[in-house]
Amino acid sequence: MTTSPRLGVCFPRELEPGLVVEFANRLDAGGVDELWVIEDCFYTAGITLAATALAHSETLAVGIGILPAVTRNVSTTAMEVATLARLAPGRITAGVGHGVRAWMEQIGARPESPVGALTEVLTALRGLLAGETVTMTGDYVELHDVRLEVAPSPPPPVLAGVRRPKSLAAAGQCADGVILTELTGPTAVRDSLATAAPTGPFQAVVYTAVSIDNDRRAARRAIAPFIAENVAHGLNFGLSSAPFHDELVALIDRDGVDGVADAPDEWWIELGAIGTPDDVAAHVQALANAGATTVSFFPPPVADAALDQLDHVVNDVVCRLAA
C-alpha cells in the first residue's frame, strides 16, 4: 500500500516577498504540510523567505529550493540553516543544487566540476548540521576543525536539487533526498530514484505545475503556454522519460500552444497537476506510487492566479487526498 505523500505549495520567485506571509497563513490553516520558497538569481533569497514563513505559521514545514552550492561558504550556510532549525525544530529542509550555469558564470562562481562541488558541499553541510567536527580539504570546500557551537536537534534534511544522472547518483550517496522540478512526471520520478540508488531513507520532493479548474479543458488551456515554452526551450528534462516525449515535441513544433491544449488525455498524468480536482488527486497519487514523498504544487507567477490556485489546493484537493 502506497503511503500518501506530503503536500506542499511553492512560492514563485516573481511574487512580492511580503506575499509569503499570506501563503504561510493560508497553508498553515488549510492543512497543507509544506511551503517551498524559491531562491533564483537575481530574485528573492531563500533563507529570508523561509525565516519569514516560519515566523508566521505554527506547524507548516518550510523547504528552501534551492541554494546554489558555491555562492555561500558552506560554514555560513550551515549557520543559517541551523539557526532556522533551532527556531523551528523539525520544520525546515534545505535544498542545495548546482545553480543555473549562466548565472554562476555571471557572478564568477561556476565550478569546473559542478558535481564535485555539490558533493563536497552536501557532505560538509550534512556533517556540520549533525554536530560533527568537519575537516575537509577539497577542490571547493576547505574546513579545519569546524563545528557548530550548538547543532540543531533534530538535524534538518539536506536535499539535492538535481536532475542529470551523475548528479542524481551523487545525491544518492551524500544527500537526504532530491528535489525534482516541474514537468517531472511519475515515469521520471521512478527513473530518477533508480539512478540515485540510495542505500537508506531518501526523500523525493516533486514540484509540479498546477492548473485546477472544474472545467478540465480550461485548466489545460491555461497551462499550455507554460508547457509549450518549456519544451520549445529545452527545459523539459523531466519529460524526457515520458513515453510520448518525442510526440509532444513534434506536436508543439507543428501546432504550438493549441497542440498542447488538445493533447491526448493519457498524457496529462505526466504533465502536471492539471485539470479537475479529481484529475489533480490522480496525478498526486501517481507521483506517490512512483516514489514521491512530497508533491509541491507550483502555481503561476502572478499574485491573483497564484492565490486562486492555492485556494483550489486547500479547498478542493487536500480533502480528496485525505479521504
Name the CATH homologous superfamily.
Luciferase-like domain
The shape, in one word, is globular
Question: What CATH first level would be assigned?
Answer: Alpha Beta
Query: Termini separation (Å)?
Result: 15 Å
Percent in strands: 15-25%
For the secondary structure, the number of strands is 11
Overall pLDDT, averaged?
Answer: 96
Strand order of the largest sheet: 1-2-3-4-7-8-9-11
Taking all Cα atoms into account, the compactness measure Rg is 19 Å
| Poorly predicted runs of 5 or more residues | none
Kindly state the percentage of residues in helix.
40-55%
Order of helices and strands: EHEHEHEHHEEEHEHEHHHEHEH
**Count of discrete alpha- or pi-helical segments spanning 4 or more residues:** 12
Look up the CATH topology: TIM Barrel
Assign the CATH architecture. Alpha-Beta Barrel
- Which structural class should the secondary elements be placed in? alpha/beta
Integer tally of domains: 1
How would you sum up the major sheet? 8 strands, parallel, barrel
